[in-house]
Design goal:
Blueprint (H helix, E strand, L loop, with lengths): L2 H6 L16 H10 L5 H22 L4 E3 L7 H8 L5 H9 L1 H10 L9 E3 L6 E3 L2 E2 L10 H12 L4 E6 L1 H7 L1 E2 L13 H17 L4 E5 L9 H15 L6 E5 L8 H7 L4 E5 L4 H10 L3 E11 L9 H11 L3 E8 L18 H4 L5 H17 L5 H15 L7 H8 L12 H12 L16 H12 L4 H22 L16 H4 L3 E4 L6 E4 L2 E3 L3 E7 L6 H8 L7 E5 L1 H6 L2 E2 L5 H21 L4 E5 L14 H16 L7 E6 L8 H6 L4 E4 L7 H9 L4 E4 L12 H12 L20 H24 L1
Parallel strand pairs: 1-5, 4-6, 5-7, 7-8, 8-9, 9-10, 10-11, 15-17, 16-18, 18-19, 19-20, 20-21
Antiparallel strand pairs: 2-3, 12-15, 13-14
Helix pairs in contact: 2-3, 5-6, 9-10, 10-11, 13-15, 17-24, 19-20, 24-25, 28-29
């Protein structure tokens, strides 16, 4: 096919779409099912209607080929485990008794069976359920869900493409099951898994699929020759079968690198590449292998992870370069649109001109369709769209919101000394012990306590004008009083105020900083039914006034025990926002750090002796390629130190991280120079404690002994057993006892019971230590 005919044949598609619905109908239906208010048939009916609505929106926008299989009740990786029969033994009976109940048991756990481990999906804030595999794993194909979704789309008269997690990525994301040797490599199961994928592909072809997409984002990471050989073998096997649909192998989030020649040579009909995060690298690599003659190229030229309008002329130039490198060039977003909100037009509180800078999922599909039209018919066919796009880009670039001279002058004046504590850790630790007088194995929580219906109602009533600010603040004071009283009665050592006034750990701060925009309907799935509204970091950042001091000092007035000041760190403020893309991330991080530094200093001046600056996203935002790590970690750790380094030696700085693989960044954790770090550890059975010990981490640490992402209540014996395992790696004088994460999403009954058991466990182990 000539470049001209390839352009004429260009079509628009996407890899996935937000699942929740405009009013988060999926969340409400699933949580209603968990509480017994919604039966299974009603839940399935809601899901069916949401899929139908999504596909119709896409088709009406001009998307030529809609995805199926991207919709999930909880997580698409968990769906893949079900598809290939990789059910943990502890959940098998539940799945066999009731497939839906068993599915949610794997995701959330039961009182008798722990859930699957959960961690971040590459460098996004989406969480997936980690497959558990071992040498005895037997895979069996179950394509029921995938075939049903395809059938529903085809029945609507749509051209549909099933989307599956690819076999290589699935195995690379997996971990050894409990009881299996830690050095077991799940990739050794590839030859056992491929026939199962082959059966699913055959089932989808029989059901009417012309194309099936196999997502292999793990191949954009650094991969060993053995892993690349496994990818070559996988697609030689699947591609060599005759009873299958056409195969589109998709990568995203970064450059494909050494895996590109492997996939280009594979007997598959198409590749999908990211031309936003790694446009130049993927273009060069594609040209180096001689293009994809005879194959379909799906070009991800619209950023699927951020919310800024695309530069249409730049994207068209990239698409034009790709013509001639493939038999057919189609237009897509760089990845699934799962990672952005649904529709920007629902936002009523953002200035109309600024709203034109934003593109959520529905706007991105319009951009994709426009680009496909322009590629096929020439720029004259989209002249009006191009002119409007140029005006929107110019408006943003020239806005006073994006350039504050005072902020930029302060940032430019930062020196290395600003990011160093006044004394080394051993001297600080002695001063803090003398000042705080905490017991061995001090107990604390991570920060938030349950956000009750009454709290959410009060917040909604304040927004709607049904109560005034005085009435709202009275409710918050009462909640803080209850939280402090409970912690004192339970026997916790370092208390928190519970964050009753906070809607979200990033949004709360964003709403009080200049340069941020807040949305009303910008919901994005974080995990399961947990949705967040990432704020939009649109301009230069500063702090007009104190943000947390009033409520922290009020809580401290109710108790003689130390109450932690609670802040979200600069890297997490970036990672869990839609961050500006018009300046280096390091510059933006420094601006946020300086604003937070002012807050830290004000907390200390108000008498707060323990200040926690959470950085759960430090590992999450780590670039996918090792060669990019040093630059990122340098500015990320500098931003944390810039936030915290201005305090006295006897002020104890805590940080917190959760649900990521920490082994890759232990040195960076050390470089933060925090006095205490708390980390997720319950589901991974204290793995992080061993990693810290292996590094020789010299400071205090609290690997979690209570998994807060499950409704199950761990017994005191279970928490004590985890604590003893932690003591095998971390000396008692440096070990803290705490949950994995904040308690915002939990209910009060399970929170009370779990924390009481946590304190009992700490006391039991303290007694054991004193007797030994």
């Amino acid at each position: 096919m000539t470049a001209k005919s390839a352009a004429a044949a260009a079509r628009a598609t996407v890899y996935g779409y937000p699942r929740q619905g405009q009013g988060r109908e999926l969340k409400k239906a699933i949580e209603g099912y968990w509480k017994g208010r919604v039966d299974a048939d009603a839940l399935r009916a809601t899901a069916t209607e949401l899929r139908r609505t999504n596909w119709r929106q896409l088709a009406e926008a001009g998307i030529h080929e809609v995805p199926t299989g991207d919709f999930s009740y909880y997580d698409h990786v968990l769906d893949t485990s079900v598809m290939v029969g990789a059910i943990p033994e502890r959940h098998r009976a539940a799945v066999e008794a009731d497939a839906l109940e068993g599915y949610f048991a794997m995701a959330r756990g039961t009182q008798d069976a722990a859930p699957l481990e959960m961690t971040k999906w590459f460098d996004t804030n989406y969480h997936y359920l980690v497959p558990e595999l071992g040498p005895d794993t037997v895979f069996t194909a179950d394509s029921t869900q995938q075939v049903a979704a395809l059938g529903q789309a085809l029945a609507l008269g749509l051209t549909a493409r099933p989307v599956l997690v690819g076999p290589v990525t699935y195995l690379l994301l997996a971990k050894p099951a409990p009881g299996v040797a830690a050095d077991f490599d799940p990739l050794t199961l590839l030859d056992r898994l491929l026939p199962v994928y082959a059966q699913v592909l055959t089932d989808l072809r029989t059901a009417g699929a012309e194309w099936v997409q196999l997502d292999e984002p793990a191949l954009v990471q650094d991969r060993t020759p053995a892993e690349l050989n496994a990818a070559a073998r996988a697609y030689r096997d699947l591609g060599g079968r005759t009873d299958r649909p056409k195969l589109l192998v998709a990568s995203y989030f970064d450059r494909l690198g050494d895996a590109l020649p492997v996939l280009a040579k594979a007997p598959v009909e198409g590749l999908a590449l990211d031309f936003t995060e790694a446009a130049a690298a993927n273009l060069d690599a594609l040209a180096a292998v001689g293009g994809l003659p005879g194959k379909r190229l799906v070009a991800g030229v619209v950023n699927g992870r951020n919310i800024w309008v695309n530069d249409l002329e730049k994207a068209l130039a990239t698409l034009g370069t790709l013509l001639g490198l493939a038999d057919r060039v189609d237009v897509a977003a760089s990845c699934s649109l799962l990672h952005v909100p649904l529709d920007a037009t629902a936002e009523r509180d953002i200035e109309p001109q600024i709203l034109r800078w934003l593109a959520f999922a529905r706007q991105k599909t319009a951009e994709i369709v426009t680009l496909a039209k322009g590629l096929g018919g020439g720029t004259d066919t989209i002249a009006a769209e191009l002119a409007a796009n140029r005006a929107d880009l110019a408006s943003r670039a020239g806005s006073a919101l994006t350039h504050d001279p005072a902020v930029r002058a302060r940032t430019a004046a930062v020196t290395a000394t600003d990011g160093r504590r006044s004394q080394p850790y051993p001297e600080r630790a002695a001063a803090q012990r003398a000042h705080l007088r905490l017991p061995l194995l001090p107990t604390t929580t991570i920060g938030s306590f349950p956000q009750t219906t009454e709290l959410r109602t009060a917040r909604a009533d304040l927004r709607a004008g049904r109560i005034d600010s005085a009435g709202y603040e009275e409710r918050i004071r009462a909640e803080i009083g209850e939280v402090i009283s409970f912690q004192e009665k339970t026997g916790l050592d370092v208390l928190v105020h519970g964050e009753a006034e906070r809607n979200d750990m990033v949004q709360y701060f964003a709403e009080q900083l200049t340069g941020y925009l807040a949305t009303q309907h910008g919901w994005v799935q974080s995990y399961g039914t947990r949705y967040v509204r990432p704020p939009i970091l649109a301009g230069d950042i500063s702090r007009p006034e104190a943000m947390t001091v009033r409520w922290t000092t009020y809580a401290q007035s109710l108790t003689a025990k130390p109450v932690k000041g609670m802040l979200t760190g600069p890297v997490t403020m970036l990672a869990w926002s839609f961050v500006r893309d018009d300046q280096p991330l390091a510059d933006t991080a420094r601006q946020v750090a300086l604003a937070l530094r002012d807050e830290v200093n004000d907390l200390e001046a108000a008498g707060t002796s323990v200040i926690q600056v959470d950085e759960p996203a430090l590992r999450e935002t780590l670039p996918l390629r090792a060669c990019d790590h040093p630059e990122y970690l340098a500015w990320a750790t500098e931003a944390f130190r810039l936030t915290t380094a201005g305090v006295r030696p006897d002020t104890q700085i805590h940080t917190h991280m959760c649900y990521a693989e920490f082994g890759d960044i232990v040195q960076a954790i050390d470089d933060l120079d925090a006095d205490v770090i708390s980390l997720e550890a319950a589901r991974s059975h204290m793995q992080v404690a061993r990693e810290l010990a292996g590094h020789g981490y010299p400071r205090e640490a609290g690997p979690g002994v209570y998994d807060i992402h499950s409704p199950r209540v761990p017994g005191a014996d279970e928490a004590a057993a985890l604590l003893r395992r932690g003591l095998e790696a971390i000396p008692a004088e440096r070990l803290w006892v705490n949950p994995d994460c904040g308690l915002k999403t939990r209910a009060w009954p399970e929170t009370r019971a779990s924390l009481e058991n946590l304190v009992t466990a700490a006391r039991t182990v303290r007694t054991e230590l004193s007797a030994s």
